[in-house]
Amino acid sequence: MSDPVKHECAVALLRLRKNREYYARKYGDANYGFGKMALLLEKQHNRGQDGAGIASLRLDPEPGSPAYHLEKSAAAEDPLADLLGRCAGDPRFGGELLLGHLRYATYGRHELSACHPFVHDSSCLARTLLLAGNFNLTDTGRVFQHFLELGHHPASRADGYLITQTIAHCLEQDSDLHAASHDWQKILRQALNDLDGAFTLCGINGAGDAFVIRDPHAIRPGYFYFDDEVFAAASERPAIQAAFNRSTAEVMEIPAGKAVIVRKNGGVEILDCLDEAPRRSCVFERIYFSRPNDAGIHRERKLLGKSLVPKLLEATNHDYEHTFFSYIPNSAQVSFHGMLEELMKTAFSEGRTVRFGQIAVKDAKFRTFIADAAIRRELGMHVYDITYGLVRPGTDTLVVLDDSIVRGSTMRSAILPILDRLAPRKIIIASSAPVIRYPDCYGIDMACAGDLAAFQAAVSVLKKQDRLDVLEHACKRARKDLASGKNKNRMKEVYDAVDEEDLLREIALLLTPAGLQAELQIVYQTLPALRACCPEYTGDWYFTGDYPTPGGLRMVNRALVNYMEQNNERAY
């Protein structure tokens, strides 16, 4: 993806089901558990690069010594490397239970206090809780108010703090502190069943129990594996496969609304905790976020590329001789392979050949530290290098595949200007995702309507047609819905008022940088094709506006109202 969309986050839980001496004898590694946790985090490094944390807990700790040890890093250059460097070889991180997390600073908070795991301390081990997760709540105001009504003094409004305190509060209500284990089914249901949002949460308590639980819509991903030696959970399946050399079939998906519990004695059980809800797993995980070495994601991304071929051949008039195909690195590469395979089949049946190669090369180490804004913009364009000599100036059409177009800022300021240096007659940007129309509230940094290229284009069309009253009326209804508690997506009214072809043309105009010499066309995936490629992942609210929870509908209406207030459109 060319746009710098961020998301939250990656989590990993590890429980050693044998005593520590067992691993030292069998594997010759006294730090076996820490090594596996480090690998689980490294293999999910793509999901969070702004903060990292690890907690280690020993079963039956010596009285007078800490029950757990916790380290976090928000180092500017590489938090994970900094964290692992400080913890490696430290015997305090040799516990039977380890909890790790990687964080993207979605909302700009880089301080240590925003890094997981979060802790609720108690002198009673059974009431001590450590929590980390990939989550975002839409009803933090309600949860905050609930704590006030209970007589508590919550120290923060952040959802990480609130969700930790919510579970801890229910944990403290479990009266039998001398029982062999907590009633986690009751505790987690009481704490989480009424929350609105998305989450995969991993927790451990001081008495030695651990759990991982997923929201009832299965919006955020989560997987687990266990055998006689270990239990492991993570946000991505391939991380567990790599750490323990397991097949795809051996690593299981955490069921929606259920909790996997690992008792202090090592026993593993799956409990029904949350009310059943329609499955709406996030499709953006499949398009872009998760690594493509997951077998299912790899297959789906290839299908996404393949499904674009008819539209691309139509856009190029089947002119193989004067068309060169490429992609935006790095996450569009697998989709490009699927597109290329289908192109070659089609071309072979017509006795033609396909010209392809890597045009854009992303310089992952590129950094700028210059204060002057104009110079920074010039240097920023060179985050991408280009391969010269492949595109014939003035005659070729250059087709470049990207995963999706969200804001379009990188496309406009960096990618298109540098592609234009090759002097193609025409540039076609192909998106493996449909048009992204709506913001997100479940953990992806797309919360501002005005940031989305599609919404900017819709407003621009309405301005040109002198129809800004559509925005005004939609905003008024959104305000009424927010006040009354009615849940209906009023931003849909804005898109419904704009002709689809007008919208697509306007997006292309908005993405066209000043001075672009080549003709520009954008080709998008269709929604039916997306659903055919990723049939089990129906969390498509980015494209449809069909949010799975009431909080999503409140958020999109709030985003519309905020946009109108900030941009003073007509009466606002």
| Amino- and carboxy-terminal Cα gap | 34 Å
Mean pLDDT: 91
How would you write the strand order of the largest sheet?
Answer: 3-2-4-1-10-9-11
Instruction: Report the sheet with the most strands, covering strand number, pairing sense and barrel closure.
Output: 7 strands, antiparallel
Structure write-up:
This protein has helices at residues 20-27, 32-42, 79-87, 140-149, 159-173, 184-192, 237-244, 284-289, 295-307, 309-315, 333-349, 373-380, 409-420, 453-464, 469-484, 491-496, 500-511, 527-533, 541-544, 550-567, and strands at residues 10-16, 51-57, 68-73, 97-103, 118-120, 129-137, 197-205, 210-214, 223-226, 230-234, 252-253, 258-262, 268-272, 323-327, 355-356, 360-362, 384-386, 397-402, 426-431, 519-524. The longest helix is centred in the C-terminal third of the chain and has 18 residues, at 550-567. It folds into two domains: 10-279, Glutamine Phosphoribosylpyrophosphate, subunit 1, domain 1, CATH 3.60.20.10; 291-444 and 500-546, Rossmann fold. Strand 9 and strand 10 form a beta hairpin. The protein is of the alpha+beta class. It is built from 20 helices and 20 strands. Helix 4 (140-149) crosses helix 5 (159-173), helix 9 (295-307) crosses helix 11 (333-349) and helix 14 (453-464) crosses helix 17. Mean pLDDT is 91; it is low at 366-373. The protein has a seven-stranded antiparallel sheet with strand order 3-2-4-1-10-9-11, covered by helices on one side. The chain is globular and about 75 Å long.
